[in-house]
Protein 1
Amino acid sequence: MRQWMLRITSYADRLLEDLDDLDWPESIKEMQRNWIGRSEGAELEFCAVDQEGHDLGAKLTVYTTRPDTIFGATYLVVAPEHVLLPSLTSEEQRAHVEEYTEVAARKSELERTELQKEKTGVFSGSYAKNPATGEIIPIWVADYVLASYGTGAIMAVPAHDSRDHEFALKYELPIIKVVSPPNGNCDPEEAYADDGIMINSSSSSSGLNINGMLSQDAALEVTSWVESNGFGKKKVNYKLRDWLFARQRYWGEPFPVIYLDDTNEMVPLTENQLPLTLPELDDFTPTGTGEPPLTKAADWVRTTDVLTGKPARRETSTMPQWAGSCWYYLRFMDPKNSSTLVDKAKESYWGPVDIYVGGAEHSVLHLLYARFWHKVLYDIGVVSTKEPFKCLINQGLILGEVEYTAYRDNEGKWVSADSDSSLSDCIQEKVPADKITKVGDNYVLKDDPNIRLNARAYKMSKSRGNVINPDDVVSEYGADSLRLYEMFMGPLRDSKTWSTGGIEGVHRFLGRTWRLVVGAPLPDGSYKDGTMVTDVEPTFEQLRVLHKCMARVSEEIQETRFNTAISAMMEFVNAAYKWDTQPKSVIDSFVLLLSPFAPHLAEELWFRLGHAQSLAHEQFPEAKNEYLKESEIVLPVQINGKTRGTILVDKECSEDDVFQIAASDDRLSKYLDGKA
């Protein structure tokens, strides 16, 4: 079946290099590097020969990242799908090879490359000449070699590759050690796969001698030798494959091309024929023939080329979901533009995306595909940046509430979780939270503290029955409490354990904030209109407390430490309750600070404070440095070499004044009685 492909491999190097400039978790970058799988090595040519060394007229090209080990290559292995395999198979071995390739065809690539599986293979009946040694070595067929990677053939070096070593032992193939560890120590029963010093690596017939060289230097020497002698060339390889971009299903963007009936030539639609939309279909189930469901829309499929008037047919495969998800963020910048993908000025203003919050499951699919798509758009001048997402944050998982598990033996007696007895023979029993207590770092039964329990939080799932329904939390505590608690549970990037009891703490904080501004409830539970604030000028101390809160909240928002930003606002509310007055200018600023965290409560307070339009239109408050400087400092006081206490003094205080303050302090003066 002919398929549409996107040539993502042409962008492999750029996708790798530009990772260095991104503020992404290193683990995600490493996943993309491994997925792209760039490796440097060499392609080497081995001439196929028969057992007597007669040329068979075929050359096998192998890719290797370790050309330095060429003297240790004692056999070749080709993939069961290799295009040359039929011509390499001898008549004596043909039945065995065909049977083996048929079995291999039924296995997935994952099954074939599983490191733990037993290696299997069959001899092809042909041989090849090692260009470095001149030796004739056998050609085998094995399913651990894939046609999709490299050239579909490898030179096997069993002394220095674990898979080749296992295969060679099973089929009694020669093992020649050609790399010695720098310290000389290695297990003779295992393959040594690291770099080292070359041994057993010279040939008078070929003129190649790399004995005594370090592996890396030897690899360069071998690559240079094969290039100059016509046996191969330097090669960069990738695990990344071109991107299959077609689906045989109804839903998806149709490809805007047609095929002329007489020549089968593919013709793109003109721009004034776009967008091409899917036809309405009552039946979009699979056809049963392998053809896409769109073939059922016969009137839609049959069309005419507007330029030539020739009869034509439409493409019936559709695009995958990536056709939209790779660039949706650009459309957000200019969603109603009917003439272009995104306006250049708007893209230049908004792009690139400052912060992308998403799970690690997108690391090598959406995030890699979107980067490729963006680079293509950059190359044709649609976007002004090379990368779509400047900063990536992987949010932590919210786990279900802690579950407490106790154990009973066959007689129904409790067994402590730290018991020497085998817990696998015991019956597990969930214990409600009100039946347990914490002693030190452990959880025990209230009724029997000698019985320790296992405490663990699990991923929320319907099967465990530990899913928290947000609607239930909102109906009991309000949307702001739920929102605030999710931020207060811990750092955004960390996994956190849900606690319904914990939400009550932030709910009380919001209640205290409300009463700070509005006042205590009336006897009937309602609140009077207006607020408790006054239009008095704030004191320096009040401004200092406010601006310290502003500075900390702003910094913590930038660093996505929302939990500590909420702590700073809690500290502000605690301090404000001790004030004799609540200056309106101070409370206004605090409500604006609170608004991203508890928008509903903040909006209500904002209108009660006398503002006519939404706080969403207000500037977020910024701290002023003049209020962030500490005007007082704490000094320790020593008397005759011993620290006796501390005093709080003005930062500008002179040494004599400080001495007088210390000497007159009631807690310190007693140590000076009768002394100088």
Protein 2
Amino acid sequence: MGHPPLEFSDCYLDSPDFRERLKCYEQELERTNKFIKDVIKDGNALISAMRNYSSAVQKFSQTLQSFQFDFIGDTLTDDEINIAESFKEFAELLNEVENERMMMVHNASDLLIKPLENFRKEQIGFTKERKKKFEKDGERFYSLLDRHLHLSSKKKESQLQEADLQVDKERHNFFESSLDYVYQIQEVQESKKFNIVEPVLAFLHSLFISNSLTVELTQDFLPYKQQLQLSLQNTRNHFSSTREEMEELKKRMKEAPQTCKLPGQPTIEGYLYTQEKWALGISWVKYYCQYEKETKTLTMTPMEQKPGAKQGPLDLTLKYCVRRKTESIDKRFCFDIETNERPGTITLQALSEANRRLWMEAMDGKEPIYHSPITKQQEMELNEVGFKFVRKCINIIETKGIKTEGLYRTVGSNIQVQKLLNAFFDPKCPGDVDFHNSDWDIKTITSSLKFYLRNLSEPVMTYRLHKELVSAAKSDNLDYRLGAIHSLVYKLPEKNREMLELLIRHLVNVCEHSKENLMTPSNMGVIFGPTLMRAQEDTVAAMMNIKFQNIVVEILIEHFGKIYLGPPEESAAPPVPPPRVTARRHKPITISKRLLRERTVFYTSSLDESEGFKSLGLRGPFPGSERVFLLQTFVCGVILC
């Protein structure tokens, strides 16, 4: 089981559990940083110590073998499984070629050391800077808050207002620092899958091709490299798609943090101070409180433990809640509650006036209810006009633009997209738009189609079936995966199933021209996964499942003929192989377990360039660390284009 996602909403609460989970991420970051340093150190040793080459390879192999990827979520995609197993495969391969005394190519440092060093300095180093800012802003905020809460309510109103503004400013700065830090540390955790593996993969490719005695080994390695490169590219595409959704969620959290509540969580939770009376006077004790409105249960966890005694959480059942009059107590933001378990009144102090208002609202106290305004994008419907719009878009795309390079990936102008949608969905004359007009280019039409589908009041594949579809995509039994999705398609409402068939048939036609438009089923899955499917809740955990939404769409495209030939025989239960039949499961790609053959020594300088084009069939341009592969393959004579 991997690390649980860090929800942006936890940044606002800053609970002890959030801090503990964040600490796990920080430990993993340090482990990764140390691992990268080890790889860089061992790689340099391999390049410089040619006389001790065999022992250097052995050490490097052991370093790779020892590392295991941690991941976010509960399941890996097939591509992520390939990536997770890749270091083990690399290590086995290095042990195999140890006796062949292979030599490093002169540009090994550019292939391995520099990309890892850049990732460590730019990504991990930047994350550590975010951590420092997060800790500094947190220390400043809580220090100011403690002083602020001890202000007397008898001070001048202007002084109190000024103090409130200062606390709100520091709270906002700390919240933003927390959001930025959580976003960055999760991004590094996810992106390391390809940013660490890619340089090692490029390094190995160069290592094997540079030695004329291992040409046959290189020929064996190329198919594995191609498959792993595709897995890396697919994982990168899934990552980019997920990152866009997470950036939107982060933006919404900044605008209204209290509106993004997670299902199954308490109605409200946060820090409160409790007035406790002792023989020698009164003290205020800090608690982390969680209130569940349905059961009226208030759970209070003490933050300041008494010497010699460990206090556990205290569960109380609320009877009523009322605001405390300012003139009756020398503290601000106070309210009183009564519970079934404790006699008398309990006085609580919130962190601010707005915070007290939220607690009062949750507890049905005598305090005006406040709701933050929430803006919502205008939703579209799956109706006759919508079907007409989709059919018109598909018709013009398949007639004039199906061979357009980057079809659906290249976005149109927002102004033109809105203009087309407003014209077509005009209530006065819906559908009265000439798509052959020169104003509507192909990228405007494809962007408009995606916008319409993404802004339906309910996604095409419905909220009701979302979890079942994602669960099916997570199965490692390939037969069950296909059978379950086949069955679930026929559980969709009729108009949804009709729309889905219309769209998937079109995407199949697009993919049939992938040589011209470069849009494969995998690419179309990345684009239409978040468009045709989406979770009902806005959470980081839901965003992490986008890669499985992409896989569902990819399966629909690849198996369109079988799925839409008709419903399965038993639509209520997806087909499962008979008990004595071995299930067809995904197996990680491998090179170390291949059948070895008797090698012949060749003395050729490099692979033929045209063969590189034919064997890999990849096209650029490639951003960021993928440029490493361009340099590496140029030296080896195998060019990725």
Protein 3
Amino acid sequence: FHSDSFVAEKSDSLVRYIPVSGRCITTLINHKDKPKKSERTLAAIHRVGQAVSVAVGRFVAVGEAIATENQELKDEMGQACFEARRAGDAIAQLTDVGSAVPSQSDGRVTVFSDRTGMVKAARLLLSSVTKVLVLADRIVIKQIITSRNKVLVTLDHLERVSTFQEFVQIFSQFGNEMVEFAHLTGDRQNDLKDEKKKARMAAARAVLEKCTMMLLTASKTCLRHPDCESARINKDAVFHRMRCALEQVIEIVTEARSCGENKILTASIYNGIKDFKSSVECLRENLYSLSPQSVAGQLEALVERTEDFTDSAYTSHEQRQAILGLCQLARQDTQQLVHAWAEAQSVHAKEPTEDMEVSILKTCQSVSDLRRELHKVAVGRASDLLKVHGEQLPLRALKAAGAEGNLEAVAEYSRTLTEQKEQLVETCRLLCHVSGTEPLEITCIHAEETFHVIGPQIISAAQTLALHPSSKIAKENLEVFCEAWESQLCDMALLLREINDVFEGRRGKFTSWMDKHSANLKTAKAVKLDAEEQTSMAKLGLELRLLSSDVDTEVEKWEEQEHDIVRQSQSLASMAYNMYLFTRYPTTTTAHIAVINHLCFPKRHPSLSLSVFQLVDEEKSVVMTEMEKLVALCQQLQMGAKTPVQGKTATFQKVPILLLCLVLVCVCAASQRK
């Protein structure tokens, strides 16, 4: 992974040196063209020239390092770096004090009189630097595509496994590949300048993150209950969604166009109103740039889109009448505008008449009032739904009915959840119309698709549990999908707040909703980890999550469920799950919670030790050895967490070791069944 992230890190270094060179070159080219300079001016020019040379040298060194790592582009990158270095040397020579000639009359030095040479060198530098960046970008794109291909191959293997042991082995590889892909695409998302693409990338990466855990539990459920049709349907839906998300990432990275993107770019009412007002206001500049028919057609297309509001079964009669009334008012004002416009054209007026100016103002006001009403309806409905669904009653009822094996109750509550899903899907569509920015539109579409997909997945997971009510893995699977539903509701609340901010003018620029996921935690300031630390933590966390789930699966097979070793193993698995959450949300608050959880382990040590004595000598030795390691590491973690300043650093140093030890304990505990 380190070698794969090399180019992404080096690309950041490449970009870092460009502003220095750019500012310095601008200074040199824009200097006053006087051949004779004072010593102070001469020294300044010399410093600027040297700064360019040093920056170019560092830039070229990074480019050459990238070329060494990527043989297929080594020649092209080497040539571009050579040209950049040559241009940097030329600029340094043109500003070199040592090459300056003193004037015989006043002793002042003549330097940098070759303005044409400076411009030529600057152009060569710009061209070569651009080429280096383009080549580096091609390498990054290739790495993302290669990483995606590896994930797809492993995904195919996962889909076809028939034994649990084989699944565990392949899923571990899959987890490593997904961590690599997440880091590469995360860096790419941060580099994107187009907010629309950034929002699409955030949506696709969110799907992949959530689906990874769904894939784990759905696949395990299907392996445990291979003849269960609802389990198979549940698993197939997860695999399909992951493949779609992977494809979307590649479309964004390669700037490919697909039929899916055409759907995303469907015009909203907000954009329709904006374009309509722009057309109307342009008449002030030119009465003959548009035809009356085209303006009237724009309004009719806009009114047609409001049918998503007026045709909805969930729109109240009063709201429907208000929207229809404002649409009619907009039509009337537009007709008056067209009439005044035609009169102005008939007399060959060069600018709007007074009547036409009044009509322009009235028309713009009426469509603005329409937008305000639509915003109120969409946001009001979303707020009401979030309040109602915050109690999660259908989800609780489905879990309870599934655990009881009550298929009739599951069917009944499934209908309730389906109705809620349809309400949420429609509300997301209405929010998309009034979102106010294209990135927010994309996020609304993502929310709509998520509710549309997860709703049926929850139902199929509940049906599986109802058919196998004693299955812990089926119960865990349903829990994972319910958590995804609840998480999307939280994201929708954040989205709603962002739409309100844009509407009220409090925020002019879209802030990626993906960056706000940490707001679901009661945050302290997040701890910054470098790429290698993040990778190590994420890989261990994913492996730990898988193994802790294995413990739950294995202890199901024990005849005595109240056996001490079973209960203690489950306790360890619970601890491991908390540490998995820690790797996903590494804030100081979460670190504190993780430390507190593990402070309890030494207290459990005596009871677990007594349980271990019931094992045979060989098994006892293995478990006791790993347990002693865990106790020692927990004590180190306690000591490191005592001081707030040192505690954070110490925690992050000890956690990877602690994770590894917990992995070993989970493996041992899972293997000690009868």
Protein 4
Amino acid sequence: MPALAFVDTPVDAFPGDCSGVFIPASPNSAAVVDTTCHWSPSLSASLYRIDGWGDPYFAANSSGNISVRPHGSNTLPHQDIDLMKVVKKATDPKSSGGLALQLPLIVRFPDVLKNRLECLQSAFDFAIQTQGYDSHYQGVFPVKCNQDRFIIEDIVEFGSSFRFGLEAGSKPEILLAMSCLCKGNPDAFLVCNGFKDSEYISLALLGRKLELNTVIVLEQEEELELVIDLSKKMNVRPVIGLRAKLRTKHSGHFGSTSGEKGKFGLTTVQIVRVVRKLRQVGMLDCLKLLHFHIGSQIPSTALLSDGVAEAAQLYCELTRLGACMEVIDIGGGLGIDYDGSKSGESDLSVAYSLEEYASAVVSSIRFVCDSKSVKHPVICSESGRAIVSHHSVLIFEAVSAGQQHETPSDVQFLLEGYSEEARGDYENLYGAAMRGDRESCLLYVDQLKQRCVEGFKEGNLSIEQLAGVDGLCEWVVKAIGASDPVLTYHVNLSVFTSIPDFWGIDQLFPIVPIHKLDQRPLARGILSDLTCDSDGKINKFIGGESSLPLHELDNNGGGRYYLGMFLGGAYEEALGGVHNLFGGPSVVRVLQSDGPHGFAVTRAVMGQSSADVLRAMQHEPELMFQTLKHRAEELSSVHKAGGGGDKGNEKLAASCLARSFDNMPYLSMETSTNALTAAINDLGVYYCDEAAVGGGGGCGKDGKWSYFGGSDTFDF
């Protein structure tokens, strides 16, 4: 029987239709995308659900790129920002007018942040006005969501006109909040949550001395004694709040911190004791705020209204007991639509708008307070992810792609040398192939592979023979259309550093190519990061998908393929670690402008260098540099004594090492400017960039080897 000549046989010659490429739509998609028609950006918008999760800030433009609409629904056509142009500006070399930043890259849009704040305030203002509510809304931003200095400063500035404040949950957070609010509205709240010791409470009381509107929220009953004692010692009349453990909670992942068994807050028994204690010491008038938290990503207004109504009853009871209540803090929970479904059935979406959320809160509080004849309180919320998620985009690059099981074109399968059983399996496979019997083909493929693997383990087959069997079987599976079409795209990213919530709690974010959206994606893929960790991959995507429609890489043509992770502006940066010593990404701050490019980069920071992440783990890069440099000098001296070696090698070593300490840990796609890669490509030990040494005989200024760390230069 002739061997099955799989090497030169075209796929479409095998029985069965294997020539077409089909990208299945998500089972939850609002529309089925016809991949056989002429492709357009609008089809990509449907395929990736951009019109759902991206509205009103992101869209696919006519050039096939992602556009950012910095002012949301108020963005004028000429104010759209092409994200690819921002990436080009950030990554192009300085000689071409770029900023020479390395990927991965976080792009921040403060205009989007400002719009989110204004929309939240407007939603509450509208609900208050239309429902005849007799107080106002005054929100705070929980800095734990993103403690970046410029984000916090922007929020304080943008929210100053409507008294928007901050919430802190630790001593470093209260320090940064106090500092930033010195430039904010004096009436803005500084809500002090979290577990507290005497130092924390002293800082909060100091805030009142500094005429900041600080509120100490009791998370534990024991904190009350500290507040009473320290306020007397510091001669400060505190403003006190308490966090209540509500009975209302939702069943999703984010509801685990609410309810009677939640991590934070006081029970009704503890609340009553706190009121009695404050009355005994003559400080009941200091109790002014009630705080609660149902949980993040509250899925529906029905659950929201239920929890707010329960809290409003508690608020009215505290008023009845003699507390001078003024504020009800509804906590976080305002969710965002990660998957574009506008559904409350999972942690990935919510079934309401900003306006519906605000209306539900206002109406629930008003109804309870009116029924109890209690003055309407100031409404405070601690919305974090709803404020900052949209304004930040993570850009990263796919550097290569390949199938998990390769179909070789240069390995022959020959019958000689195989056992009789293996030859029998092959003959059965051949017969099934000729009959076009797909199920039997799969059965005999499995039998043949298993038998040959056992033969290899016993030492009866060579690696060439095993490779021949593997190649044959993969070809057959592919030819009958049973192979896994999913490619593995290797991306220049650390999941643990930049998307830790995916690894930690299976949080999904929209991931989309930021260009080529006018071209049909002909592949499906999962994403594999740079870390030496099997968990460093993204194989779950919005819409319940286990792979993502992607374009084929143009590795030969030099084209680069950029992907964006959206709605990740909350938590990811603060939670990210340095697994495998991959540090934080580069960052640019982009404002919409009326200039020729439509935007202006107002701040650009290179990501953490290798030296930075080494320092974070208590290493000393300067000492490491000197140790390695000294080792190179010693070896060079030994080689010279033996009549070999190059007297310049030690200087070249210093140059290579300094660059490696200074560069980001991620792959450098510009190999011509990467010293280490260039050295390897040249098969040399060391490399010195002529441009860096000014073309003279020495390297670095004054003949020294310099280590460039960010904006500073350190001479070793």
